[in-house]
Design a protein that fits this description.
Layout lengths: L3 E6 L3 H10 L3 E4 L5 H7 L5 E5 L9 E3 L5 E4 L4 H6 L1 H6 L1 H7 L5 H6 L2 H6 L8 H6 L3 E6 L2 E6 L4 E3 L2 E2 L6 E7 L1 H4 L2 E8 L10 E9 L6 E9 L6 E2 L1 H7 L7 H12 L12 H22 L7
Parallel strand pairs: 1-3, 2-3
Antiparallel strand pairs: 4-5, 5-10, 6-7, 6-10, 8-9, 11-12, 12-13, 13-14
The structure holds flavin-adenine dinucleotide.
The site of flavin-adenine dinucleotide has 31 residues, from strand 2, helix 2, helix 6, helix 7 and strand 10.
């Protein structure tokens, strides 16, 4: 039994915002793969739900005139993985969300729910951090854009107001053109598993593929929120792809920028070991995808 006070099917984003303003007990439900679990467990029992599930404008991936990619917040994981624009420009995101749950969850769960639930373990989050995604929110006061770096405020918390609908994510052209990336989800098994640690690396190589022109490193479950390791990135910028010493320093620096905790899934010490090891592996894959040769 689901203890739900009321269920309202919004016809548009504006209609959803109005419904959220009208009822201070109301929260958004999109795919419902987090919300319904919380309702069933009693944590969100008795809430009013405003469904954005059938709002067409929230779904799909578009290439905008300026070259930016727009990903609708209501787009399901399986849509993202199979979308031709994602496959062409940011296959890493399609691969990352393909690690979520099982097929049923990937057909139902949305990227908007994955980012807005504020979970550090969200499988799309570390990749979205390395893409410097902008988050578009629409509420009673109008629209605003929040860079993902300022979106998370703590475990399960974000700057989004209860009455704001996340409409889409913008991936700017300069964050995907010429970049290649790889996401590693470490978990005890391959499917139906929340990440013990998630590691996302994106690289941009020089034209001759010998130098790391730019690099981005993001983690999930390495702290209370998804995060980037800017000092580690700085260390590796301009290094040769074959410079294993620099790669080692990059990974060791990352360890100084994180704050993992012990949980029943893994100890803090084990997570720190993963935090040092996984970026080396993800970097090697990203360089390979970019056409670089590490063991020349
Ligand atoms: C069996 C199972 C396995 C799972 N495995 C994984 C996994 O491996 N990796 C992983 O990352 N997650 C996993 N999840 C969690 C979940 O599937 C994802 O977080 C999913 O992305 C949530 O999306 P949703 O559309 O179902 O969100 P919902 O449950 O509808 O909403 C989640 C939260 O976000 C808010 N919200 C949703 N959409 C919007 C929006 N557009 N604007 C503003 N707020 C919004 C809701 O109010 C709610 O607080 C799993 C869940 C289950 C049940």
């Amino acid at each position: 039994m689901f203890d739900i006070r009321s269920f309202y099917e919004a016809k548009s984003v504006e209609d959803a915002v109005d419904a959220l303003v009208r009822d201070e007990n109301a929260e958004i439900i999109s795919g419902g793969t987090d919300v319904l679990i919380r309702v069933r467990e009693g944590r969100d029992a008795g809430r009013s739900l405003v469904s954005i599930h059938n709002i067409k404008e929230l779904k799909g991936v578009r290439l905008l005139e300026n070259g930016d990619l727009s990903i609708g917040a209501g787009t399901s994981f399986s849509h993202i993985t199979n979308d031709p624009l994602i496959q062409k420009y940011i296959p890493m995101l399609g691969e990352a969300v393909d690690t979520v749950g099982g097929p049923q969850i990937r057909n139902t769960g949305t990227i908007g729910g994955n980012i807005c639930n504020g979970a550090t373990s969200a499988d799309s989050a570390s990749t979205m951090c390395t893409l410097d995604a902008d988050i578009l929110l629409e509420g009673p006061e109008g629209r605003r854009i929040v860079p993902i770096a300022s979106f998370y405020t703590g475990p399960g918390r974000t700057v989004r107001e209860r009455t704001e609908v996340c409409t889409c994510f913008l991936i700017h052209r300069e964050s995907y053109e010429g970049w290649h990336g790889h996401y590693i989800k470490y978990g005890k098994r391959k499917a139906m598993e929340i990440a013990t640690l998630g590691c996302a690396v994106r690289v941009k190589l020089s034209e001759d593929k010998r130098t790391i022109e730019d690099v981005r490193l993001g983690y999930g479950v390495a702290g209370p929120t998804p995060l980037r390791c800017k000092k580690a990135e700085e260390l590796l910028r301009g290094c040769l792809v074959t410079d294993q010493e620099a790669v080692g320093e990059f990974a060791r620096m990352a360890v100084t920028e994180v704050n993992p905790r012990s949980s029943w899934r893994a100890s803090k010490e084990f997570r720190l070991q993963l935090i040092e090891e996984l970026p080396k592996r993800a970097l090697a894959e990203a360089v390979k995808k970019a056409g670089g040769i590490i063991n020349a």
